[in-house]
Amino acid sequence: MKRLDCLGDMCPIPLMKLMQLRPELDRGESVTIVTDHSCTCESLQAYCRKQRLPVQIDEPIPGIWELRISPASRS
User: Fold this and answer.
1) 19: domain range?
2) What would the pLDDT profile of 48-73 be if each residue is shown by its tens digit?
3) CATH number of the domain within which 26 lies
């Protein structure tokens, strides 16, 4: 599983980083993205929805989100 630190990154940087990892997602590798911007959660979730990639969002610390994208669990 890849872990992508996007703390401090403003939109659309996290989305661009995720798009660069698309070949790895296509091979079934999971990615966790850590961000501190709620707008990043919204844009990444919209991208995953369009790409039919399952995404789980958790907020382990107030104001910090982890988005787990696990294409291997696609149904």
Assistant:
1) 2-73
2) 999 999 999 999 999 999 999 998 65
3) 3.30.110.40
| CA distances (Å), origin 49, targets 44, 53, 60, 62, 63 | 9, 6, 22, 24, 23
How many structural domains compose the chain? 1
Mean pLDDT, the chain, integer: 92
| Structural tokens at position 59 | 């907020």
Please spell the DSSP secondary structure of 3-70, one letter per residue: EEE-TTPPTTHHHHHHHHTHHHHHTT--EEEEES-HHHHHHHHHHHHHHT--EEEEEEETTEEEEEE-
pTM of the model: 0.87
